[in-house]
Amino acid sequence: MDVELKKVGNAIFEMEKTGEMKASALVFGIPKLVEDMKRDRTFWQLRNVAGLNGILKHAMVMPDGHEGYGFPIGGVAAFDGETGIVSPGGVGYDINCLPGETEILDNFGCRRKIGEFCEGEVLQKSGNTILVGLNKVQLVSVNSTGIQTGNAPYFMKKIANGGLVSVRTNCGKTVKATKEHPVLTKEGMKNIEHLEEGEEIAVMLFEGVEHAVPRKRIIVQETRIKESRRSILVERGLLPLSENNPKIPLLAKIAGYIFGDGTIYFDKGKGRISFFGIKEDLEGIQKDLEELGFSSKIYERRRKARIIDQYGEKNFESLSWELHANSSSLAELLLALGVPKGKKTTQDYGVPDWIRKGPLWIKRLFLASFFGAEMSTPSTSSKTCFYCATVSQNKNKENVEGGRLLFLQMAEMLKEFGINNVSITERTEFRDIRRLRMMISGEGDLLRLWRRVGFEYNEKRRRLAEISCLYILEKGRQLEKRRKIAKNVKEYKSKGFRLRELQKMFSSRIANARMIERVYYEGKIPRTPKNFESFESFKKRKWEEIEEYGVLFDQISKKAFVEYSGEVYDFTVEKYHNFIAGGVVVSNCGVRLLTTPLTVDEVKPKIREICDSMFANVPSGVGSKSQKLRVTVEELGEVCTRGVEWAVEKGYGRKEDIERTEEYGKIPDANYAAVSDLAKKRGTKQIGTLGAGNHFLEVQVVEKIFLPEVAEKFGLKEGMVCVMIHTGSRGFGHQICSDHLKTVMRKANELKLPLPDPQLVYAPLETKEAQEYLGAMRCAVNYAFTNRHVIMHWVRESFDSVFGAETSEKMDLVYDVAHNIAKFEKHKIDGKMRNVIVHRKGATRAFPAGREELPPIYRDVGQPVIIPGSMGTASYVLVGREKGLDLCFGSTCHGSGRTMSRKQAVREHMGKDVAKGLWDSKGIYVRAMDMRVVAEEAPDAYKDVDAVVQSVAEAGISDIVAKLRPLGVVKG
Fold first, then answer.
1. H or E element that contains 320
2. 31-55 residue pLDDT tens
3. Which of 69, 109, 605, 893 sits between 20 and 30 A of 438, alpha carbons compared?
4. Beta bridge partners of 553
5. What is the set of active-site residues?
6. Parallel/antiparallel/unpaired status of strands 24-28 and 58-66
7. H-helix or E-strand containing 728?
């Protein structure tokens, strides 16, 4: 981006206030680094930050700055501590999007292409991003208790030029997305670019049907309803009732259930609607009745019952639930819609015309609710073969024809879903009652039934249908492999090859020697292998999976990069913060430095051994989770509110470590109640884990001291070996930011706040949304402090195991600083001390001597500032200067800053070559979970860290204390 910058000091440039900017902007860096920032949108984003309401002094970017989400990475901005704002983009977040043809599933089981949601008011348009407000859009979501629906108040689209990542699972679910788009795994949300073939991701087998706009035809005129009952229905928007009324889907569902396990009757002129079933399922009906505007109540009944039938007399006690809605107006409306009244055994009725003539998705809602009440639960008649799906109804002899006609109408409707194998049987029951059964058979039709129609108001059947579909698809996949082998055997037999040769070539777990022999001699068509898992065993495993995660998982069979240039789209979904795309369920970072009593001569011969030990002791990699330290949800609350103090109490680290951590390892006012269940679930498994990307453990030697007195205070001396730990709050912090971005967006729209860029969405500090975000963000900060602290404990243990049992006693923490954070601090502005909220995104606090926030041991020299370099290059320790307080709220750079995307780095480098080159040329040993990450983090993918720290030193905001050279690196 071409901008006019005016040099205002050594390594300091100013972007003057123009246009919508509320303040000027400062750029720190030597000329070469400043020129590099023009290659992306860094300055465009910096100008937008300067356009935020209430910004104080300047917007700023450090010399390691580059394009980010809303704020540039390396950005710093401050706002008044009482009347100011908070922006999640100023702490850290990524935008993720899907191409327009991606199919989204809404709450009524309708498939709609995501690109079709470009309707409604365009709230903001800036750069290449558009934010659109949606009205009453609800999408299918997932949480740990199962399938839910979440409001989607916002829709975003932007231009993407970086290509897409495509993943396909064994069961055929495929999703394409920009590389940062999160996909749900058992370890939580993971960016699609980091998924691997063979890894499991969350899927939904139910597909629903395509959405179609209903006609405007009137179904029920006001005159059909008694005058005394009309006003209630008119008030609730139910009269006159047309096919395109937004409440028609709810009425279709409720009507379907009453056809099965409900009843309408009038007693002394007062109408009542009753529903029978499991309490949890009735709660779903109750919710829909509330949406229609009617109250209802669930009753629990324990009864003694007696049944006399052709098999004799049965006496038993039963616990049952009933849902009663006492509303004459609703009862009369349902009758007008063709819902039967009273006992269904003794009357004739059919599927209402408005259902039969309505769009397919309305038919689905009616049938799925009826099947939820009446259809048999998916189960097998043998090890692998499924029973027919069956619906039964009892009829008096006089009403049999009416019952048969009802099933015939349903069979005709099922044809529209591709379900053709429908049959009917009839038999005489006790006292001349006729039992009619409609059966759907054949695994192909069962798949279409469960995937296209499914079940409403019956969670058990819905779950079992999902499990059954996955089982049938896996069975079909195995059978197809066997048939391909059989085809090859027949072909090679015709060319003269012998049986033993073919058995040696094709025998496997899927096709044993006996199968190949039968194909060879008898031409047998293969069946499901005998060693294929039984449905009962599969069901048990997958039921437990749903119980734990709320959804099923399937393995990725193929992952590929797809060239793409065009529009991409995304939603914000309230509460659950995920949605179904193509059948797939789609942080505070910081660094600490640890000294050792060892010299480079002592460590260098054992560098492989110590790196391998740390690699084994500290779980690392994308989605890594700890087997060494698991916390409960309740314990996680203590981690979030007490931070490092909790870890020390549990035996991790030492008391003196606490004062050597920014904020003493615990930022106050963390609000655990503001953290979502999904974030909590992710957080319980990732304490003490390193993660991937630019996170690392690095063994370093102090190569040069620049300020001896300060270095001595920090405990550093030349030739000393140190360990640097760089990681953050992992998936826990990312999920928190993801969750609260949505609520902040909603508030910004409600208040009609001016946004220079939708990615810079913010909320005023006095709002509930801002306070909840800050409370949750502080949980992530404390989690990150604790995460690094636990890792440090295991690093100390590794040094004990390699260099002797007492080594760790002399391994002291220098300091721990955060990189992504929004904090309340006191700063002098226009000669007066003011309480401000400082946003540092990819920037580090760098306070000089005298600040009361610093621990006593450093208060007379200033705060240690730890600057990691790229893999294979130097790192630095800095100290804050007084000028930094005046100029940039006591802030400085946080590292090297990328110049090359991870994808480009992978295209240009092989990880194993990078690792070998570092060893051969510099003697640096690299141990990594994934060599792809090594390629992503190649040294030339980053700016020159020497130039970055030279910039902040020349600008006078930080002084260089020491330079550290790497000896060995551990990466995820």
1. strand 312-325
2. 999 988 887 778 988 998 998 888 9
3. 109
4. 202
5. 894
6. parallel
7. strand 720-728
